Amino acid sequence: MVAVAGLSAAALLAGEFHLRFLAEILIIGTAVMSLDLLVGFGGLVSLGHAALFGAAAYAAAVAAQHLGGNLLFILGTGIAMGAAVAALMGAVIVRTSSLFLLILTLLLGQIVWEIVFHWRDVTGGADGLRGLPPLSFGPWVLSSARPLFLLAGLLALAALWLAHSFVDAPLGRALIGSREQPIRMSALGYSIPRIRFLTMLVAGAIAGAAGALYPFVNLYIGPQSVHWTLSATMIIMLVIGGVGSLWGAFLGSAVYLAIQTYISAYTDRWQLFVGLIFVLTVLLLPNGLAGGLRRLASRMRRRRAQQA
Prior knowledge:
Pfam family, one: BPD_transp_2
InterPro entries: ABC_transp_permease, LivM-like
Number of strands: 2
Membrane topology: Multi-pass membrane protein
Protein name: Branched-chain amino acid transport system permease protein
Number of helices: 14
GO molecular function: branched-chain amino acid transmembrane transporter activity
Protein backbone atom coordinates (compact mmCIF):
# COMPACT_ATOMS: atom_id res chain seq x y z
CA MET A 1 0.00 0.00 0.00
CA VAL A 2 2.85 2.38 0.82
CA ALA A 3 4.46 1.67 -2.56
CA VAL A 4 1.19 2.27 -4.41
CA ALA A 5 0.64 5.55 -2.52
CA GLY A 6 4.18 6.66 -3.32
CA LEU A 7 3.74 5.90 -7.02
CA SER A 8 0.45 7.79 -7.11
CA ALA A 9 1.93 10.84 -5.35
CA ALA A 10 4.95 10.92 -7.66
CA ALA A 11 2.72 10.64 -10.74
CA LEU A 12 0.71 13.65 -9.58
CA LEU A 13 3.55 15.90 -8.38
CA ALA A 14 6.65 15.20 -10.49
CA GLY A 15 7.44 16.80 -13.84
CA GLU A 16 8.24 15.20 -17.19
CA PHE A 17 11.99 14.76 -16.62
CA HIS A 18 11.67 13.46 -13.08
CA LEU A 19 8.92 11.02 -14.02
CA ARG A 20 11.10 9.51 -16.75
CA PHE A 21 14.01 9.41 -14.32
CA LEU A 22 11.91 7.62 -11.70
CA ALA A 23 10.62 5.23 -14.35
CA GLU A 24 14.22 4.43 -15.32
CA ILE A 25 15.04 3.72 -11.65
CA LEU A 26 12.09 1.32 -11.43
CA ILE A 27 13.02 -0.46 -14.67
CA ILE A 28 16.72 -0.81 -13.86
CA GLY A 29 15.78 -1.76 -10.29
CA THR A 30 13.57 -4.54 -11.63
CA ALA A 31 16.47 -5.90 -13.69
CA VAL A 32 18.79 -5.69 -10.67
CA MET A 33 16.20 -7.50 -8.56
CA SER A 34 16.13 -10.33 -11.09
CA LEU A 35 19.93 -10.52 -10.75
CA ASP A 36 19.44 -10.79 -6.98
CA LEU A 37 17.64 -14.11 -7.51
CA LEU A 38 20.88 -15.46 -8.93
CA VAL A 39 23.39 -13.70 -6.67
CA GLY A 40 21.56 -13.33 -3.37
CA PHE A 41 19.69 -16.63 -3.28
CA GLY A 42 21.65 -18.87 -5.62
CA GLY A 43 25.18 -17.61 -5.05
CA LEU A 44 25.59 -17.31 -8.83
CA VAL A 45 27.44 -14.07 -9.60
CA SER A 46 26.88 -13.21 -13.26
CA LEU A 47 28.60 -10.68 -15.51
CA GLY A 48 26.22 -11.45 -18.36
CA HIS A 49 22.94 -10.23 -16.90
CA ALA A 50 22.95 -7.11 -19.07
CA ALA A 51 22.74 -9.44 -22.09
CA LEU A 52 19.32 -10.65 -20.90
CA PHE A 53 18.11 -7.11 -20.25
CA GLY A 54 19.59 -5.54 -23.38
CA ALA A 55 18.64 -8.34 -25.78
CA ALA A 56 15.03 -8.00 -24.63
CA ALA A 57 15.21 -4.23 -25.07
CA TYR A 58 16.48 -4.61 -28.64
CA ALA A 59 13.90 -7.27 -29.44
CA ALA A 60 11.10 -5.01 -28.17
CA ALA A 61 12.45 -2.00 -30.09
CA VAL A 62 12.82 -3.91 -33.36
CA ALA A 63 9.37 -5.49 -32.94
CA ALA A 64 7.83 -2.07 -32.31
CA GLN A 65 9.44 -0.64 -35.46
CA HIS A 66 7.97 -3.35 -37.66
CA LEU A 67 4.75 -4.38 -35.89
CA GLY A 68 3.73 -1.41 -33.76
CA GLY A 69 3.88 -0.68 -30.05
CA ASN A 70 1.07 -2.81 -28.63
CA LEU A 71 1.95 -3.09 -24.94
CA LEU A 72 1.10 -6.74 -24.42
CA PHE A 73 2.94 -7.76 -27.58
CA ILE A 74 6.02 -5.73 -26.61
CA LEU A 75 6.08 -7.14 -23.09
CA GLY A 76 5.63 -10.67 -24.42
CA THR A 77 8.47 -10.15 -26.88
CA GLY A 78 10.79 -8.89 -24.15
CA ILE A 79 9.91 -11.70 -21.75
CA ALA A 80 10.38 -14.33 -24.46
CA MET A 81 13.75 -12.90 -25.54
CA GLY A 82 14.99 -12.56 -21.96
CA ALA A 83 13.99 -16.14 -21.17
CA ALA A 84 15.49 -17.44 -24.44
CA VAL A 85 18.88 -15.80 -23.83
CA ALA A 86 18.75 -16.99 -20.22
CA ALA A 87 18.05 -20.55 -21.42
CA LEU A 88 21.05 -20.48 -23.75
CA MET A 89 23.26 -19.02 -21.05
CA GLY A 90 21.88 -21.38 -18.41
CA ALA A 91 22.54 -24.45 -20.53
CA VAL A 92 26.25 -23.53 -20.49
CA ILE A 93 26.76 -22.33 -16.92
CA VAL A 94 24.51 -24.47 -14.71
CA ARG A 95 27.30 -26.94 -13.92
CA THR A 96 29.89 -24.26 -13.11
CA SER A 97 30.39 -21.99 -10.12
CA SER A 98 32.53 -19.18 -8.67
CA LEU A 99 35.27 -17.91 -11.01
CA PHE A 100 34.40 -20.21 -13.94
CA LEU A 101 30.77 -19.04 -13.85
CA LEU A 102 31.88 -15.40 -13.73
CA ILE A 103 34.13 -15.81 -16.77
CA LEU A 104 31.59 -17.83 -18.75
CA THR A 105 28.79 -15.31 -18.20
CA LEU A 106 31.18 -12.52 -19.19
CA LEU A 107 32.09 -14.30 -22.43
CA LEU A 108 28.50 -15.18 -23.28
CA GLY A 109 27.39 -11.63 -22.59
CA GLN A 110 30.09 -10.27 -24.86
CA ILE A 111 28.94 -12.59 -27.65
CA VAL A 112 25.53 -10.90 -27.43
CA TRP A 113 27.25 -7.50 -27.49
CA GLU A 114 29.23 -8.47 -30.62
CA ILE A 115 26.00 -9.48 -32.37
CA VAL A 116 24.27 -6.24 -31.41
CA PHE A 117 27.24 -4.05 -32.30
CA HIS A 118 27.92 -5.58 -35.73
CA TRP A 119 24.38 -6.43 -36.92
CA ARG A 120 23.89 -2.86 -38.06
CA ASP A 121 20.96 -3.50 -40.41
CA VAL A 122 18.79 -4.64 -37.50
CA THR A 123 20.24 -3.05 -34.36
CA GLY A 124 21.68 0.16 -35.75
CA GLY A 125 25.17 -0.86 -34.67
CA ALA A 126 27.03 1.72 -32.60
CA ASP A 127 24.29 4.29 -33.28
CA GLY A 128 21.56 2.19 -31.64
CA LEU A 129 17.85 2.66 -32.34
CA ARG A 130 15.80 5.84 -32.00
CA GLY A 131 12.44 7.10 -33.15
CA LEU A 132 10.42 4.19 -31.79
CA PRO A 133 6.61 4.22 -32.09
CA PRO A 134 4.85 4.85 -28.76
CA LEU A 135 3.43 2.07 -26.66
CA SER A 136 -0.31 1.58 -26.85
CA PHE A 137 -2.89 -0.32 -24.84
CA GLY A 138 -6.22 -0.54 -26.61
CA PRO A 139 -7.30 3.03 -27.45
CA TRP A 140 -4.71 4.59 -25.10
CA VAL A 141 -1.34 5.83 -26.36
CA LEU A 142 1.35 5.58 -23.67
CA SER A 143 3.84 8.14 -24.96
CA SER A 144 4.05 10.76 -22.20
CA ALA A 145 6.07 10.40 -19.00
CA ARG A 146 3.18 9.89 -16.57
CA PRO A 147 1.65 6.69 -18.05
CA LEU A 148 5.14 5.30 -18.68
CA PHE A 149 6.06 5.93 -15.05
CA LEU A 150 2.87 4.27 -13.81
CA LEU A 151 3.52 1.35 -16.16
CA ALA A 152 7.08 0.99 -14.83
CA GLY A 153 5.72 1.11 -11.28
CA LEU A 154 3.16 -1.61 -11.96
CA LEU A 155 5.85 -3.74 -13.59
CA ALA A 156 8.15 -3.28 -10.58
CA LEU A 157 5.39 -4.25 -8.12
CA ALA A 158 4.41 -7.31 -10.21
CA ALA A 159 8.05 -8.39 -10.55
CA LEU A 160 8.64 -7.93 -6.83
CA TRP A 161 5.61 -10.06 -6.02
CA LEU A 162 6.75 -12.73 -8.49
CA ALA A 163 10.28 -12.76 -7.07
CA HIS A 164 9.00 -13.07 -3.49
CA SER A 165 6.67 -15.89 -4.56
CA PHE A 166 9.55 -17.68 -6.26
CA VAL A 167 11.80 -17.38 -3.21
CA ASP A 168 9.05 -18.65 -0.88
CA ALA A 169 8.17 -21.55 -3.20
CA PRO A 170 9.81 -24.99 -2.84
CA LEU A 171 12.03 -24.21 -5.84
CA GLY A 172 13.31 -21.07 -4.17
CA ARG A 173 13.98 -22.93 -0.92
CA ALA A 174 15.85 -25.57 -2.92
CA LEU A 175 17.88 -22.83 -4.61
CA ILE A 176 18.99 -21.48 -1.23
CA GLY A 177 19.80 -25.02 -0.11
CA SER A 178 21.90 -25.59 -3.22
CA ARG A 179 23.86 -22.46 -2.37
CA GLU A 180 24.43 -23.41 1.26
CA GLN A 181 24.83 -27.21 1.05
CA PRO A 182 25.19 -28.37 -2.57
CA ILE A 183 26.58 -31.80 -1.68
CA ARG A 184 23.81 -32.52 0.83
CA MET A 185 21.13 -31.31 -1.61
CA SER A 186 22.50 -33.63 -4.30
CA ALA A 187 22.50 -36.49 -1.82
CA LEU A 188 18.83 -35.78 -1.08
CA GLY A 189 18.01 -36.23 -4.77
CA TYR A 190 17.80 -32.61 -5.91
CA SER A 191 19.18 -31.76 -9.35
CA ILE A 192 21.24 -28.62 -8.77
CA PRO A 193 21.73 -27.91 -12.52
CA ARG A 194 17.95 -28.09 -13.02
CA ILE A 195 17.32 -25.74 -10.07
CA ARG A 196 19.85 -23.24 -11.41
CA PHE A 197 18.47 -23.51 -14.95
CA LEU A 198 14.91 -22.77 -13.83
CA THR A 199 16.15 -19.85 -11.75
CA MET A 200 17.94 -18.48 -14.81
CA LEU A 201 14.69 -18.69 -16.76
CA VAL A 202 12.75 -16.77 -14.09
CA ALA A 203 15.48 -14.15 -13.76
CA GLY A 204 15.69 -13.83 -17.54
CA ALA A 205 11.93 -13.39 -17.90
CA ILE A 206 11.84 -10.64 -15.27
CA ALA A 207 14.88 -8.89 -16.77
CA GLY A 208 13.28 -9.26 -20.20
CA ALA A 209 10.07 -7.57 -19.06
CA ALA A 210 12.10 -4.67 -17.68
CA GLY A 211 14.17 -4.49 -20.86
CA ALA A 212 11.03 -4.37 -23.01
CA LEU A 213 9.96 -1.07 -21.44
CA TYR A 214 13.41 0.50 -21.27
CA PRO A 215 13.68 1.81 -24.88
CA PHE A 216 10.30 3.55 -24.63
CA VAL A 217 11.17 5.33 -21.39
CA ASN A 218 14.74 6.16 -22.42
CA LEU A 219 13.69 6.95 -26.04
CA TYR A 220 16.84 5.14 -27.20
CA ILE A 221 18.54 1.77 -27.02
CA GLY A 222 22.25 1.31 -27.73
CA PRO A 223 24.90 -1.42 -27.50
CA GLN A 224 26.00 -0.26 -24.04
CA SER A 225 22.77 -1.82 -22.78
CA VAL A 226 24.18 -5.31 -23.39
CA HIS A 227 27.80 -4.61 -22.44
CA TRP A 228 29.41 -6.34 -19.48
CA THR A 229 30.00 -2.97 -17.80
CA LEU A 230 26.23 -2.65 -17.27
CA SER A 231 26.27 -6.09 -15.63
CA ALA A 232 29.04 -4.87 -13.30
CA THR A 233 27.01 -1.73 -12.59
CA MET A 234 24.02 -3.90 -11.66
CA ILE A 235 26.19 -5.81 -9.19
CA ILE A 236 27.33 -2.51 -7.65
CA MET A 237 23.69 -1.40 -7.35
CA LEU A 238 22.82 -4.74 -5.76
CA VAL A 239 25.58 -4.53 -3.16
CA ILE A 240 24.65 -0.95 -2.26
CA GLY A 241 20.96 -1.83 -1.97
CA GLY A 242 21.49 -5.14 -0.20
CA VAL A 243 22.19 -8.59 -1.61
CA GLY A 244 19.32 -10.98 -0.85
CA SER A 245 16.76 -8.30 0.00
CA LEU A 246 14.97 -8.02 -3.40
CA TRP A 247 13.50 -4.57 -2.70
CA GLY A 248 16.98 -3.31 -1.89
CA ALA A 249 17.72 -3.51 -5.62
CA PHE A 250 15.52 -0.45 -6.14
CA LEU A 251 17.40 1.45 -3.41
CA GLY A 252 20.71 0.62 -5.01
CA SER A 253 19.57 1.64 -8.47
CA ALA A 254 18.13 4.90 -7.10
CA VAL A 255 21.42 5.82 -5.37
CA TYR A 256 23.58 4.96 -8.38
CA LEU A 257 21.38 6.66 -10.98
CA ALA A 258 20.92 9.74 -8.80
CA ILE A 259 24.69 10.15 -8.53
CA GLN A 260 25.10 9.50 -12.25
CA THR A 261 22.39 12.00 -13.18
CA TYR A 262 22.89 14.85 -10.73
CA ILE A 263 26.52 14.79 -9.57
CA SER A 264 27.78 14.19 -13.11
CA ALA A 265 26.32 17.62 -13.95
CA TYR A 266 29.00 19.16 -11.71
CA THR A 267 31.99 16.88 -12.19
CA ASP A 268 33.21 14.20 -14.59
CA ARG A 269 34.52 12.24 -11.59
CA TRP A 270 31.11 11.24 -10.32
CA GLN A 271 32.21 7.60 -10.24
CA LEU A 272 34.48 8.48 -7.28
CA PHE A 273 31.30 9.14 -5.28
CA VAL A 274 29.89 5.78 -6.35
CA GLY A 275 33.12 4.08 -5.28
CA LEU A 276 33.08 5.86 -1.92
CA ILE A 277 29.49 4.83 -1.22
CA PHE A 278 30.27 1.28 -2.34
CA VAL A 279 33.25 1.01 0.04
CA LEU A 280 31.32 2.55 2.95
CA THR A 281 28.43 0.16 2.32
CA VAL A 282 30.72 -2.87 2.34
CA LEU A 283 32.47 -1.70 5.53
CA LEU A 284 29.56 -0.29 7.53
CA LEU A 285 26.44 -1.91 6.04
CA PRO A 286 27.39 -5.42 4.87
CA ASN A 287 23.71 -6.13 4.24
CA GLY A 288 23.31 -2.94 2.20
CA LEU A 289 20.92 -0.06 2.64
CA ALA A 290 17.96 -2.42 2.94
CA GLY A 291 19.66 -4.29 5.80
CA GLY A 292 20.50 -1.01 7.52
CA LEU A 293 16.92 0.19 7.26
CA ARG A 294 15.63 -3.12 8.61
CA ARG A 295 18.01 -2.90 11.55
CA LEU A 296 16.96 0.71 12.24
CA ALA A 297 13.27 -0.24 12.10
CA SER A 298 13.89 -3.15 14.48
CA ARG A 299 15.59 -0.87 16.99
CA MET A 300 12.75 1.62 16.80
CA ARG A 301 10.20 -1.17 17.43
CA ARG A 302 12.17 -2.41 20.44
CA ARG A 303 12.40 1.11 21.82
CA ARG A 304 8.66 1.62 21.47
CA ALA A 305 8.03 -1.73 23.16
CA GLN A 306 10.28 -0.76 26.08
CA GLN A 307 8.55 2.60 26.45
CA ALA A 308 5.15 0.92 26.39
